[in-house]
């Protein structure tokens, strides 16, 4: 299952409509509002969340990009904290915590539809767990098959051990 990566960025107007209108009202004041809107736009463009089949990437920066990634099977928990959805159009913060010992986390705020992002990542986590269970199950079946052949004396002990090692090698 290969799909293209989905990119999510913070929303300017939807996240902070009052700030947007304040900056717009300052446009007649020597263009100050345009400068403030441009700075705000650059700030929202330099941060994004990219979700593909295997991992979620938090990318920050315009020229020199700093990336933090977390593979979906390493995600321990996903927290979504929506701000009042009627007023802001459904923006909020998405925070991913990792199972790894490094205690890595990814957090981005001002994202539209954070619950949808959580659902996408949860789906990839579910798909990943199912694929892992299926591959483990088929590995166990293959080892049991060759064990059955060993019991029937079709395979020697040496052949059995060699085949078992090859099967287990594919798992790791």
Describe the structure.
The chain has 6 helices and 7 strands, in the order E-H-H-H-E-E-E-E-H-E-E-H-H. It has 172 residues and is α+β, with helices and mostly antiparallel strands. It has one domain: Pleckstrin-homology domain (PH domain)/Phosphotyrosine-binding domain (PTB) (PH-domain like), CATH 2.30.29.30. Strands 1-2-3-4 form a 4-stranded antiparallel β-sheet. The chain has a 3-stranded antiparallel β-sheet with strand order 5-6-7. Helix 5 packs antiparallel against helix 6 (157-171). The mean pLDDT is 79.
Q: What is the count of structural domains?
A: 1
Strand order of the largest sheet: 1-2-3-4
If you average the pLDDT, what whole number results? Answer: 79
Q: How far is the N terminus from the C terminus?
A: 21 Å
CATH superfamily membership? Pleckstrin-homology domain (PH domain)/Phosphotyrosine-binding domain (PTB)
Structural class, please? alpha+beta
Gyration radius, to the nearest Å? 25 Å
| Contiguous uncertain segments of 5+ residues | none
The beta-strand count equals 7
CATH class: Mainly Beta
**Number of distinct helices:** 6
From the spread of the alpha carbons, the general shape counts as: rod-shaped
Strand content: 25-35%
Estimated helix fraction: 40-55%
Oligomer: single chain
SSE pattern, N- to C-terminal: EHHHEEEEHEEHH
What profile does the largest beta sheet have?
A: 4 strands, antiparallel
What is the CATH architecture assignment?
Roll
